[in-house]
Amino acid sequence: MRLSAIGRTAVTAGLLLAAAACGGREDPGAGAGATTAAGGCQGQQTTGITDTGIKLGGIYPLSGPASAYGAIPKGIKAYFDYVNAEQNGIGGRKVEFVVRDDGYQPPKAVEEARRLVEQEQVFALFQTLGTPSTTATWDYAGQRKVPQVFVATGASKWGTDTRHPWTIGWQPNYVSEARVYAQYLKQERPDAKVAVLYQNDDFGKDLLGGFRKAIEGSGITVVAEQSYEVSDPSVDPQMRNLAQSGADVLLNVTTPRFGSQALAADARNTKWNPLHIVNNVAASITVLRPVGFENVQGVVSATYYKDPVDPQWENDPEMTLYRAKLKQYAPDADPSVPYHAFGWAVASSFHKTMEAAKCPTREGLRDSMRNLSGVEVGMLLPGVTMSTGPDDGFPIESMRLMRFKGERWELFGEVIDTRREFGPLTAD
């Protein structure tokens, strides 16, 4: 729900009262810099949080094959800088956001997670990007009982695996996204022959598996599959093989660098003209621009947050705020880059989740992120809200389709709530 000014004041006041009730004391067994909370939160961890500050750590591929995602923390930092300067932080606590680079390498992600938790003494890991990196670190986060909040990956296991209550996703999971594309094809191309390019890891296999399951019982068939490794220099060989499949739809399940390559290869092959569906994580303008906008007309994808270049949001209050504060606090960041808007949206989501915590502790944040109910976030599309439960780790499961036209994406159709259309996603 969208909080009124009175509601926001009440939430903030409630958090401050909880902080007073849960005043910390040192716990010799909790590790250096750790405290435990008294009162109603007796024994809970307050490492990385004080009455005046909260320290978060993020892990991103600032270098390497997925470095395009390095734009996300700029949007996050701009949001936190704005909140710190103009709203006295979150519940009176100024946010410090420490960013580490793992180069999209899981062993490096583990190393950086340990550094953030054990040396930097962060309160929570906020945004670990990538399915492989998050998979490599969530056991560690769980063992240390450190919240791993709103990880930047849509792997379905973040929500279906209840053995890891300290880790939670944020964006629509890949199975839900696959369901959206399947539903679209059932309506528009019920006899489609689909060729799939996918990244050979948990990310690519998750979306492909979700798509295969969603088309069961329909006339849609997958006629060809080609995978690639993140260490590959190019996906041109895979695209040549897929072009010989006779498919009339190409499902492009890639990260940004390889998404650009696949779109370019498709454009060069004038003898093959499939409907090109590109997954959300590779649908940024920064992916399409190098290919040439004239070469990506009609490409289809899906989204859940507002596109900064879509004119329908020109006078939108949240978009106006985002543009102004990004310019003020991150002047080198281009507000038209969707990854900056993504960062702003997820930081705002954390703000609301932390404010709703009954106690300002790691356990309090864990419980809050697992108990969201219809929470509205200004940068999300109208009709898209955050909801979770003890056994539901998928905050967002609604999306809208979009088609590239001219120099931007255009939304079409209604918001698709995959919970309602396909039923809840559960562990197999």
From TrEMBL:
Tagged with keyword RNA-binding: no
InterPro entries, per database record: Leu-bd (IPR028081), Peripla_BP_I (IPR028082)
The entry's keywords: Signal
Pfam families, per the entry: Peripla_BP_6 (PF13458)
Gene3D superfamilies, per database record: 3.40.50.2300
Domain Leucine-binding protein residues, every copy: 54-405
Family as reported in the entry's similarity comment: Belongs to the leucine-binding protein family.
Protein name per the record: ABC transporter substrate-binding protein
Annotated organism of origin: Planomonospora parontospora subsp. parontospora
